[in-house]
Amino acid sequence: MVIISREKVRPSSPTPQHLQTYKLPMLDQISPSALLNYILYFPCTIEITDPESFSTQTAEQLKHSLSLILTRFYPLAGRVNIDGQSIICNDQGVPFLVAKFPGQKLSDHLLPNPNLFSRRRLIPCDADQVSPGSSVALIQANYFDCGGVAIGVIFWHKVLDGISICNFLNSWAAATTRGLSNDAAWPNYIAQYLFPHREDPPGGLGFLTITKNGKSVRRRYVFDALSISELKAKSSVLVQRPTRVEVVSALIWKCFMAASLANNCSASVVSHVVNLRRRAEPPFPSECFGNFIGFTAATNENNIEKDHGLGHLVRKIRDGISKIDGDYINRMYGDEGLSGYRQNLRLTWSDVPEGADVLKITSWCGFGLYTSADFGWGKPVWLASCDSGSPFSNVVWLMDTRDGDGIEAWVTLDENYMSVFDDVEDLRALACINPCPLDKIIMAPIRYKGFP
């Protein structure tokens, strides 16, 4: 790998004086101070006559369009304040690296199986801690001899959730190909008014209290449409129209139960991260910026002698999610919102047995990156994440497969749990472990669109 350039991309127009301190809304303050990283892979689907010119031109286009949209996503160009609870938005810019991989093709990082070490070189850094003065977002554009491109991004979780990340990436892609149109959706910063900043920052709430620390192992399981149909058929006896996310979550929970029991725990909990935008009454706009997330809790005994059919587990998952409703959100509004948040935690976790094992599941299914994140050279063939040293275990990230019909499950467990989890017969029968993302992908050359 050769680093071609390092620079900071600043907003194309200065951030107004009254916006230069971005105080994190209460729900952001509660969110973990962790770094999230993602990589979008774009195979060569265009006619390239001059690879050197292609990389130079497209890198400049990416930086130009990034500069444009940072006028709207201005907190991302700032730096973490000394209090750790706000951002100094003085346009210091987003660190932007351009890297080349001489003698390598994009497929070298995907075949025969996606490689963790190779992914780490595609993101700007592999740090897992944030300190005063840290960047809020970092980006690396990677170019391969075949014409393939991989874009690696890092974001501070306290500032935005998965929906906000996808909104940013889609907006950046649209600005790259079409410019910054006035009718494009702007990020909505209403969270600052709905869930006001707390001068006495809360700690020990939410994510950190339900996430287990320890030496972890990460595996990627892919469920295709046929496997999901089979899971739905098994679940529909007890639950009407089970969703993809529900049935895959239920199977993962069933496997986790076996692992939890083998590690001498009698009960387990699945906690889904839920998008509050859709569950508010009336719903919040999808463009709302920040962490609009709530946590569910569905519990069950790890008794292998009892019937833990998928339908039974799906119903528990659905019942837990249904509790996040308008009243749940209303309790967190305004200056008393922290008390409401604590009340929600008590109501959510009141039936959970002491000492129960917790598995946290986050779903990005339906977020639309495979259909919208087109920077002018085609849509991504794969969206991946890199375990850059985070200490969190017993967490799951669900993502659409490229065709939109299947689900990728990225499972990170304590190493003692993974050995049992990975050996459950149902999982082995229905999921493919770490397949190549290029399988069944047909490359259809298109002409590079360039910049408007």
Give a summary of the structure in a few sentences:
Helices cover 29% and strands 23% of the residues. The chain is α+β, with helices and mostly antiparallel strands.
Summed up, the domain count is 2
CATH architecture of the largest domain: 2-Layer Sandwich
The fraction of residues in strands falls at: 15-25%
Mean pLDDT: 89
N- to C-terminal distance: 31 Å
Q: How helical, in percent, are the residues?
A: 25-40%
Shape: globular
- The CATH superfamily of the largest domain bears the name Chloramphenicol acetyltransferase-like domain
Give the tally of β-strands: 19
Q: Biggest sheet, open or closed, and with what strands and sense?
A: 8 strands, mixed
Highest-level CATH class of the largest domain: Alpha Beta
Helix/strand structural class? alpha+beta
CATH fold topology of the largest domain: Chloramphenicol Acetyltransferase
Q: Nearest-angstrom radius of gyration?
A: 22 Å
Q: Could you list the spans in which at least 5 consecutive residues all have pLDDT below 50? A: 441-452
Helical run tally: 14
Keywords: Acyltransferase, Transferase
Family: Belongs to the plant acyltransferase family.
Pfam family, one: Transferase
InterPro entries: CAT-like_dom_sf
